[in-house]
Structure formats: C-alpha cells, structure tokens
Amino acid sequence: MPIAGQMVDGGLRLVRPLGRGSHSLVYFAVDRAGQPRAVKIFPAHLAAFADREEAHATGLDHLRLARVIGRTQVDGHPALIGTLARGEVMFTRYAQRPAAQHDRRAFLLTLAHVLDGLAYLHQHGLVHRDIKPENILVEPDGSAKLVDFDLSGPAFETFDVPTRFGTAAFQSPEAARGEPLGPESDLFGIGVLLGWGLHGALPDPGERLPSINDPLESLFLGLTRLDRTRRPNDALWAREELLRLAGLPY
In terms of domain of life, where is this protein from (predicted)? Predict the structure, then answer.
C-alpha cells in the first residue's frame, strides 16, 4: 500500500489519505510545481473502473465537477490524478439537521451547485449514477463540487445483463432494477438529498416522509416520483425551480 511521503511517477508526492471512493483509495498529493492534487488509487483487479473514469471524465471542465487531468501507477496499481476538491462530505458539513432549517442558504447553494455540475454532465451525454453525500464535497459557505465518476457513463447505456448502479439509500427505482439510466435518475438522488435537508432523515425503503409546510416540499416530491416518466429530467430546470421556490436569486 502507498505511504505518506511516497513519490509517484510524474513527480507527485503522496501526503495523506483523504478517503475512499466507490472503488478506490484517494490521497492528497502535491505535484512538482507545488499544486495540490487528488490521486485515486484503484486495486489492480478494478482497473476497469479506472479506465471508465478516465474515458468519461477526462476533458470535462466545469467549476462544480472534480477534473481528471492524468493517469499514473502507484506500486503497480492504476491511479488517476485529479484536481483537489476542498471541503467536507455533505452529511458532515451539515451536521445540524434538518439542514434546510439550520443552514438553509448554504444547503440550497450546495444543491444548486451540484445541479449546475449535473447539467453540464448531462449536456455532454453522461450521467453520474452515484449521487450521494460522500460524492459531494462542501466548503463552509456551501460551495460544492461533485466527485467520483467511476460509475459514470453514457446516458441510457445498456449492458449484456441488468446492471445496478448507485447506493441503495439514494438509488432511483430504475437503478435498483438494473435498467439503463438517464438524467432523471441522477435527479432522483438530488430529490432524496433535498428531502433529507427538509426532513432531517432518510426514509426507509418504500416509506414516504410526512408532508411539511415548506415551499420546497413540492420539488422534493416531484424529483422522487417512482415513475421515471413523470420525473423531471432537466437539471437546469430543477436548479431554477429550487431557487425560485426558496426565494433566492437565480
């Protein structure tokens, strides 16, 4: 396993572990020019996930998305070099709950930023497929970046067998069934996060949270419709609706 202080091919120095992605260990690193970087190290047997992320995330350039800028190896393991997304994972940043009551403006800014990033991703024909708190890094003011693209791929991509993507608590019904996924599936995950912010809890499978008197409740219900054909599939529309209902400037 890599250790702090280890030099990586290309002049990167690993500094400390940052956390784990879906299939990787993420290190904070510094390049030879002194720039901070994130290095995602994949086990050798999961090299296909590194290949997918490199193929789909390289070239994406948006303020609200972490960028992949190169590839290397660490002790024979495939690794991706990316820009460093600062902040805490979403649920850690919003420790006081419900977040939409205790830190409303920052929380809604976080969701608006993630929707900005998703809109860019969707416009490029890709879906993230793993919207969850661990993949959203949030700064103190609520600014956010979406990270971890090793499950991402083309919208409505098909496989030889039904393939389930995502994390159960934030997974759309069609993702749980292993169906091809489109933008509406990413927006289901945003809806779950919005509901968590409004209610301070995640529902058990099949449970509907009790309605509350908040103008954003209607958006939460719309984004989490079980029928994908009745669910919004436009991230920019969802962003504008979020800010409109909250009375915040677009």
Answer: Bacteria
- Asked if pLDDT for residue 210 goes beyond 90, the answer is no
Per DSSP, the three-state class of 50 is helix
Residue whose pair of structure tokens reads 């390049």 in the numeric block: 31
161 lies in the same domain as 209: yes
Residue 18 half-sphere exposure toward CB, CA atoms < 13 A: 26
Contacts of 214 (CB under 8 A, 6+ apart): 100, 198
The active-site residue out of 103, 130, 186, 214 is 130
CA–CA distance, 186 with 117 (Å, rounded to integer): 11
Q: Which of 32, 61, 83 is the last residue of a domain?
A: 83
State CA 204 to chain mean position distance: 21
What percentage of the chain reaches a pLDDT higher than 90? 82
Longest Cα separation, the chain: 56
Whether 214 sits among the annotated catalytic residues: the reply is no
**Whether 138 and 73 share a structural domain:** no
User: Do 220 and 198 form a contact (C-beta atoms < 8 A)?
Assistant: yes
Asked if 225 and 113 sit in the same domain, the reply is yes
Instruction: Kindly report the average pLDDT of the chain as a whole number.
Output: 93
Domain count, the chain: 2
What's the whole-model pTM score? 0.94
132 is in an annotated binding site: no
